[in-house]
Input
Amino acid sequence: MVQRRNTLGRGLDALLSMDEVKTEGSSSINEIELSKISVNPNQPRREFDETALQELSDSISEIGIIQPITLRKLSDEEYQIIAGERRYRASLKAGLLTIPAYIRTADDENVMEMALIENIQREDLNSVEIALAYQHLIEQYDLTQERLSERVGKKRTTIANYLRLLKLPASIQMAIQNRQIDMGHARALITLADPKLQVKVFDEILEHGYSVRKVEELVKSLSEGETIKSGGKKIAPKRAKLPEEFNLLKKHLSGFFNTKVQLTCSEKGKGKISIPFNNEEELERIMEMFDALKK
Output
């Protein structure tokens, strides 16, 4: 308690300097020379917005670092970033020589986990970056999704949903990373089994600015074997080859209604029957036939 009173008594300057202030456990806060810091090769974030980086650099030049970065000590002359690469880069831009940092004890197997968890909380990774980081953890440390969920404090279903993003075509993954579409759009597209169909619907999202709800409706129709209309285009799902008994049923219905009945079926067994008509009189004839069937 005495140490705390003395620290507070020295005023705001003492709190902001954060020189050799001890924290809980084996961590401490120190001023570290930027020249001694290296980036973490397993950093989940891949892209840094230059405009935002310059804005942060300007802020640092004016008021300094507010939140210390987190480092792992490799030796007396070398530290590796666990979390805070954006603040580190901005500090370099601002011409700083040192930066306040939490120094943490972490073995190699924990560094990626710490970087992932802290970056998700503080730096808003995009969905693909998170998915790549999860995939790296699974492959690097031979983890199951269940074990990974325990290690990073996320539900297994959440992790599974992120990992499924990596099965999408590259153009869609890039769009997620560039924030042209969001996670909701991507999750809807994943339910389509055909990559070509995924890309076609993705193109329509970009062209028409479709909401997630609209994409879910389009995908549901395509999954059930329906042809959809988007703008002036028609998008048809890959047709599953109808079993012979379905073809016989199709011919029977066409003969019964005296019109070319269409029968479609998806790979999941869902489908629809379409009965076309050329005019109102033909529609009335078909409706009369249905009425007769009810009697």
Observations:
- The two ends are 90 Å apart (CA to CA).
- The CA atoms of residues 205 and 214 lie 9 Å apart.
- Residues 1-26 have pLDDT under 50 and may be disordered.
- Strands lie at 21-22, 28-33, 37-38, 69-75, 78-83, 98-104, 228-230, 233-235, 262-265, 271-274.
